[in-house]
Amino acid sequence: MKKTLALISLTALFPGAWAHADSAYINYRHQYAESTRMHADRVKFGSRLDSGWGFEGELKYKTAGDRQDVAFDNTVGNGHELTVSYQYRLDEKWLLTPSFALESIEKSTAI
């Protein structure tokens, strides 16, 4: 829970950066896995600055308990992800975007 609050605090800083951003977005996805009858949700906040730097934060949730097949029932955290990228403009049609993503779940963190 502390990790989720820290991530929410970090994403709260994005609106200030969005004032100077070339583009920004919010992406919500809902998933239902038929084999496990489990619902999951993801919310991603992203921003690309005029300087070429991009920042994304993603919150992941899933249903838990006895009623996993009921959407939005007993929702628990399922990890989060932070991504930093930079866009190099090679010419008018081509962009190169290296990125660094840090994904964290309850028991581990991966790069």
UniProtKB/TrEMBL annotation:
GO annotation terms (biological process): oligosaccharide transport
GO cellular component labels: cell outer membrane
Regions that span the bilayer: none
GO molecular function: porin activity
Keywords for the protein's UniProt record, in alphabetical order: Signal
Listed name of the protein: Oligogalacturonate-specific porin protein KdgM
Signal peptide: 1-21
